[in-house]
Amino acid sequence: MFSVVVPLYNKEESIKRTLESVLEQKYQNFELIVVNDGSTDGSAEVVNGMQDERIRLINKVNGGVSSARNLGIKEAKYDWIALLDGDDLWAENHLYNMHKAIVHNPEIQFLGAGYNVAKKDGTLLHTVQAEKEGLVNFFEISLKIRFVVNSSCVAFNKVKYPGVYFDENLTAGEDLNFLEKLGKSSPLYLIPEATSFYLDDTENKAVYSTHSLDKTHVYNINTEDIRDAREKKYYNNLILHSSLQVLEGSQSAKNAWKIYQKHNRFIGDKRFL
Hints:
single chain, alpha/beta, 10-stranded mixed sheet, 8 helices, 10 strands, globular
């Protein structure tokens, strides 16, 4: 059984299609938890209007996507948590592929599928997927395939990660921070087939919002907790990439310089390059 956790904040135009992609799964052993994080539009009304007994809507005061996901994880009846954002989609065999992998590989604690980046009209932009199926080190594979998984294409066994939740103090990069926590505790099992869709042009996209620098994951990386050469190289690349994002116009030069200054000793250590 899977507990599917969907955080919801002002996704009135998208949420029905997202939930339908779950309800239409080939593998039907799941509960569907939607955590409404204080939406101010008609999102909750859309969910209530679907009237499917598999949907459990939880309403809470707005506290951010991490608090919504954490509440969903805590309220989940089952050990296996599958995450899906309120404007992303699953192909009908997404949970089936995960179920099959878990049954045949009982050592799995954390797994992810490939994913497509697309427009909401169906236009495919690109696909991110591994070349072969199996267990990998999260940090090592991430050096080869940038953002190899995201929060809408992974599942994990919450019993194996007691006390591991999303950082509610972060407003940007909180999903990557969570995936890194999982990756530090166990290998990642990758399913090459791309069975989820990240839609980059839906309403109210957090990635296009302005975030306070001290609330971003990359600014708050604790380099003292990095354990081995693979992790060192991974974080070195992540910090450098984020510092240079100003060239893409995605953040201010001032913030990029602050990130670089905070981590410059770590970046400058040639052992980590």
